[in-house]
Design goal:
Number of helices: 3
Radius of gyration: 21 Å
Helix content: 55-70%
Largest sheet: 2 strands, antiparallel
Strand content: 5-15%
Oligomer: single chain
Structural class: mainly alpha
Amino acid sequence: MDVVVTGRHCTISPELKERYEALARHTDRPASYYMRLAMEEKIAEYEHIYLMKHEVEDYRAGKVAAVSFDDLMGQLLDD
């Protein structure tokens, strides 16, 4: 099954298609509603992972300094 997302195509497995369609039948909502909901909820996780990956790369490259937990807590509590 191809899903068109604002001019983009996404191919999903027949098993996943059936799961979305079954959920749609049981809830009287379109399958596209659940597909959109799943993408909206998952994007924040991917953004977080990407940001963390780049922060680790910056640390390893010496672009940022590490801060000890105690120093961080001191900074937070001073604010």
